Amino acid sequence: MSSPLEKVQVAPVLATVRRLEERIGARFPGRGLHRVVGELAALVETVGSSTATVRGRRSWLRPLSRVAIVAIVAITATVLVLAVRAALEDAPDDGLAWIPLLESAVNDLVFAALAIWFLYSVPERLQRSSLLELLHRLRSLAHIIDMHQLTKDPERLRSSFRRTDASVSMDLGPDELENYLDYCSELLSLVGKTAALCAEASRDPVVLDTVSTIETLTVSLERKIWQKIAVLNHDRGSSPAS
């Protein structure tokens, strides 16, 4: 029996996202970041229901495809045996007369192999389609989160910063900015955890590679955010006490 700690579970991830939604709502209720975390919560729920549906569909589709594969193997073997028996009964003296029989046997084997491959991969391909759609939405959400923190630069809080007509206004203080950036970092981390939920439901190499790509993306974006937080803390630590 597998331990619940051996894989990522939907319920704890969703609970963490909901708790983060409350925290962001308490500090930044009117900002778009609060709507983003709500979208992430909805995506976690969708991933949970979709993976459960996929597992249920796979539980009956996989045995059915295996039965069909066995039937194809049995039919192909029977046809080949009957063809060989009929050929041996006729026993053509000319060796060239065996060529049509060999061509027919090769064609039957090729078509049987294609049918077996198709039936074997049906459950995985159906699962892949739904999971890749969810992963695409998660990748887009990660970029949306990055857009929210893109203009939140600590240098805009410096007294030496020179504004221009095109400068983006900064309506956050140092403490608020740190909280905002920290929330963005947590959101990106939870996007990666949600992608990992998709990996728990599949062993398809395309799905796993996409999950790995999203996790790498979120870690890279988090690193940029923590660089901003480090600069912000450095500026606050080096500023003279009033």
Question: How would you summarize this macromolecular structure in one to three sentences?
Answer:
With about 240 residues, the chain is mainly alpha-helical.
Anisotropy-based shape: elongated
Q: Domains counted in the coordinates: how many? A: 1
Q: What is the averaged pLDDT score?
A: 80
- Helix/strand order, N-terminal first: HHHHH
Distance between the ends = 61 Å
Major sheet description: none
What is the multimeric organization of the chains shown? single chain
Poorly predicted runs: none
The number of helices is: 5
Radius of gyration: 29 Å
Number of strands: 0
Beta strand %: under 5%
Look at the helices and sheets and give the structural class: mainly alpha
Helix content: over 70%
Helix and strand arrangement:
Blueprint: H1 10-27, H2 32-90, H3 99-150, H4 174-200, H5 205-238
Helix pairs in contact: 1-2, 1-4, 2-3, 2-4, 3-4, 3-5, 4-5
Transmembrane segments: 64-84, 96-120
Keywords: Membrane, Transmembrane, Transmembrane helix
